[in-house]
Design brief:
Largest sheet: 7 strands, mixed
Number of strands: 73
Distance between the termini: 137 Å
Structural class: mainly beta
Radius of gyration: 64 Å
Helix content: under 10%
Length: 890
């Protein structure tokens, strides 16, 4: 390229992109001069801040005030001639082909726009001047020949000229100066055709002139490459000495056996070859609709009117037919990266064409794709497809297609189960995952439960047979390929199942004291949640105690002790809990003193009896005198021996929750018991001897009854304070008929403790078992108050006895019960079932069936039961009431 005027070189201060946060456009040349018909490049670079991305880059020549400049590539005048050889990074070079005289004096500017609203910038101007066609003037003087290369460039510039002889640059033997070549002297060795060209436009030389004797054929290009389907001109000049006339111009080709094309008569040869030269000095040949059949070597020959005046071109012209190819770098690219597509040919085209790019057989609507390069930066997913290219004007001969594959991470993720809503435990489930990905994705399944993530398997489908409740949770799938990974939205797998792990618990968890507020809670694992709770107490079969999750006791009593269990149900199934034992502790109560003696003059033993839970751990004995009470003995023994005659005693029973005093008792020399506050006349009326006889009989019966204890708490101690009393404890006497106010206090702790011949039931209904007993008196009311039963030779006389049912006095072998509505019934024998001592008394109940326990039979000679007042049940047969008393074993 040559500059026709003064050079205004804009030296770049830095490489493209180094200017940091500035906008700028730089041109290597601001004035360019080129001949018509040639192509010219306007070198250009531009810079912008690194944070910006170029959205549009273009050249323009017109910019009207108030309007946006007109893109050069949108102009019909430049559509096929302008080619953007830069990119959207830093190169903005422009090529203009087939220069015309109308291009003379035009000012070209480059502009780019970034994604920053203020990122718009336009460079200064580059002026293009046209030189017009070059020509060589020849002046001969004797043996001196002067050749001058002239042009029409208007500037007083000093371009560089290049001289050719027979299309080859002249050697150093020739003297050149500016646009002049001098040959002095001329010899036969200097014969030939001379032409000139401007540096930078070597492809556009001047027509040649002949120097000396010129028999010659000169080809502008000895190698020509043209696109299939196009038209190609083989430019040729020939010369001969004066005095000759050309008669026959001939072209020969190497096709086949050699083809001779005679243009002496007409200028055409078949439908594709045309002679466009003349019979003077132009021998150019044109081949239209070029095909692979035209590929080969061509040379020119001419004949004159003189038989000796013939000349063959000494060299050939090689014609190649180019096939178009699309090269990709790379052909597999990730989304966001860049790719370059090149429309290449199998040979270098002699005349650079303008290209058209296609995607999926449709032209790409981008004015900047007229070059052989197609830049994709950054690559988008929709850039995937089949690409081809062609030369403008020869759209019917595109290149073969090439496919660009854009890899991208999985998108449009979808994960779903084979069911809607919920699913029952034990069913089969299929989970399916899908995505749009290139290359295709592999799948992994995950479950999120309670904040933890678990891997569940791989594959597009996850099959679960016999699904369990453990599979409940949020599921999602992960799709992965070489471009990246993506996760689907989670979805719920809701497995419904019946209640599991049903249990009953108690609050508070420590010891429960009578009067406390206690809550029983029923818990279960179920889905859907339990909607129905039912509480039961063992020995209360089919009686619901509550229908809430919690069963509350605001003021718990001993009657509430027992085994409890709950039933839970949801829409799937129901379940029962194991038994929960509720043990209620209370301080001693119903404390009394019993006196015993082996006979007149023998030692008297006082025994302190009480009802407590846990058992009493300390008994304190006090003797009263005129000055007050004196502690006589204390310890874990409930009996006290060696009392003084005439003294008054009482005992105090202690456990962890309190203490309780017995009534005072006076000991006389005759071992007569006198309780403070009882009528003395009643004791005197009975006499001593019958009382002693009663005591003897009761002692004898007690020994036959395997040493039955008066009460469990009288002989059984906690921990290591006292060994367990081996006396059997009797419970579940089925013959006892309960009244309504007593019935609510029956529970699994309703044990009956029998001592001697009498039996006392604490905290509930009372059964008195003795030897031969005679019941006198009418109605008696007794709901478990404080009561003292003395068997054998014991006489109860006088005194104040606290009993919610009324006063009760037992005389000799007969019992007189007064003050209540209770009937006594005597039986000759009765059988009690005794739990085997090897069975733990407090083991939880198993619901709804209780474990069978080993039993033994105990037979008593007689036993007294209370039956309900006949005023309450008038027509009921008493024998029917007690029909459930077990018979002795045979």
């Amino acid at each position: 390229m040559s500059v026709c005027g003064p050079l205004f070189v804009a030296f770049l201060l830095s490489a493209p992109g180094v200017l940091g946060n500035t906008y700028g456009v730089e041109y290597s040349l601001t004035e360019i001069c080129a001949p018509a018909g040639s192509a010219v490049d306007i070198p250009c670079t531009y810079t912008y801040p690194t944070k910006d991305t170029v959205k549009k880059a273009f050249w323009f020549t017109k910019w009207e005030e108030g309007k946006d400049p007109e893109d050069l590539f949108q102009s019909e005048d430049y559509r096929d001639r302008a080619e953007y050889r830069g990119n959207k990074e830093h190169d903005c070079t422009l090529r203009i082909k087939n220069l015309r005289d109308t291009d003379h004096g035009l000012k070209y500017r480059f502009r780019f726009i970034t994604d920053d609203p203020v990122g718009k910038y336009a460079g200064k101007e580059v002026t293009l001047y046209m030189t017009g066609p070059l020509k060589v003037d020849k002046r001969e003087l004797n043996l001196r020949v002067t050749l001058t290369c002239t042009s029409t460039c208007p500037l007083n510039s000093r371009p560089t000229y290049i001289w050719y002889r027979n299309r080859q640059p002249v050697g150093a033997k020739y003297r050149t100066s500016g646009n002049t070549l001098v040959i002095n002297p001329v010899s036969n060795d200097d014969s030939g055709h001379y032409s000139c060209a401007l540096r930078g436009h070597e492809d556009h030389p001047s027509p040649p002139v002949c120097v000396s004797h010129c028999w010659s054929v000169t080809y502008t290009h000895q190698e020509i490459c043209a696109v299939e389907g196009s038209s190609v001109d083989i430019t040729c000049y020939y010369s001969y000495p004066s005095g000759y006339a050309v008669t026959t111009p001939l072209w020969f080709s190497s096709l086949g056996s050699g083809e001779r094309m005679d243009f002496s008569v007409k200028n055409t040869y078949d439908n594709h070859v045309e002679y466009i030269g003349n019979k003077n000095n132009d021998c150019s040949l044109r081949i239209k609709e070029l095909s692979l059949n035209h590929k080969g070597k061509y040379h020119f020959r001419f004949e004159t009117n003189d038989t000796t005046g013939r000349w063959n071109g000494k060299t050939d012209v090689s014609l190649s037919v180019a096939g178009l190819l699309v090269n990709m770098d790379p052909d597999i690219v990730k989304e966001g990266e860049s790719a370059t597509l090149i429309c290449s040919t199998t040979c270098t085209l002699s005349d650079p064409p303008s290209y058209i790019w296609y995607k999926n057989s449709h032209p790409i609507a981008d004015s900047q794709t007229s070059m052989e390069y197609l830049y994709l930066n950054p690559v988008r997913i929709d850039d995937s497809g089949s690409y081809s290219c062609t030369v403008r004007g020869y759209e019917d001969h595109p290149s073969p297609v090439r496919t660009l594959s854009v890899m991208y991470t999985p998108r449009n993720m979808s994960a779903s189960p084979s069911f809607s809503g919920h699913i029952l435990e034990g069913s089969s489930v299929t989970l399916t995952c899908s995505s749009d990905a290139n290359p295709p994705a592999t799948y992994t399944w995950f479950k999120v439960k309670r904040g933890q993530t678990f891997s569940m398997g791989s594959g597009q489908q996850l099959n679960i047979s016999n699904i369990s409740s453990e599979f409940s949770g949020q599921f999602y799938c992960r799709a992965e390929n070489s471009a990246g990974t993506s996760d689907s939205e989670p979805f719920l797998v809701d497995v419904h199942y019946g209640p599991k792990n049903t249990s009953a618990s108690i609050t508070p968890s420590g010891d429960i004291v009578e009067g406390d507020s206690v809550t029983l809670t029923c818990s279960s694992d179920a889905n859907p949640p339990v909607h129905n709770y039912t509480w039961y107490k063992i020995n209360r079969v089919n009686t619901s105690l509550g229908s809430e999750q919690n069963l509350s006791f605001t003021n718990i009593s001993t009657g509430d002790m027992g085994q409890y269990y709950c039933e839970v149900a949801n829409t799937v199934a129901s379940s029962y809990s194991a038994g929960l034992h509720v043990n209620v502790y209370y301080s001693p109560r119903n404390t009394s003193v019993m006196v015993s003696s082996s006979g007149e003059g023998s030692l008297v033993t006082l025994t302190c009896n009480t009802d407590s839970n846990p058992p009493v751990h300390t008994y304190s004995w006090y003797r009263k005198n005129s000055s007050g009470s004196v502690l006589t003995a204390t310890g874990n023994n409930s009996s006290f021996t060696g009392v003084s005659d005439g003294d008054i005693y009482y005992c105090v029973a202690h456990n962890e929750y309190g203490s309780h005093n017995s009534s005072e008792i006076e000991v006389t020399s005759a071992a007569i018991i006198h309780q403070t506050g009882m009528p003395a006349g009643l004791f005197a009326a009975l006499g001593i001897i019958p009382a002693v006889a009663i005591i003897v009989v009761l002692v004898f019966v007690c020994r036959r009854g395997k040493g039955i204890s008066t009460t469990e708490n009288r002989s059984t101690m906690v921990g290591n304070r006292q060994p367990e009393d081996p006396s059997p404890v009797y419970e579940h006497v089925s013959a006892v008929l309960l009244t309504s106010d007593h019935e609510d206090r029956v529970d699994s702790q309703g044990d009956q403790v029998v001592s001697g011949g009498d039996q006392e039931v604490s905290g509930g209904d009372q059964e008195d078992l003795g030897g031969d007993q005679e019941v006198s008196g009418g109605d008696q009311e007794d709901s478990g108050g404080d009561q003292e039963d003395l068997g054998g030779d014991k006489i109860d006389s006088g005194g104040d006895q606290e009993d919610s049912g009324g006063d009760r006095v037992v005389l000799g072998g007969d019992q007189v019960i007064s003050g209540g509505d209770e009937n006594d019934v005597q039986y000759a024998t009765v059988q009690f079932k005794v739990k085997n001592k090897d069975v733990a008394q407090d083991s939880p109940a198993v619901q709804p069936q209780e474990k069978k326990e080993e039993e033994e039979d105990v037979t008593y000679a007689s036993v007294k039961f209370r039956s309900p007042s006949r005023e309450v049940i008038q027509d009921e047969d008493d024998t029917a009431i007690y029909s459930n008393v077990n018979k002795p074993r045979s």
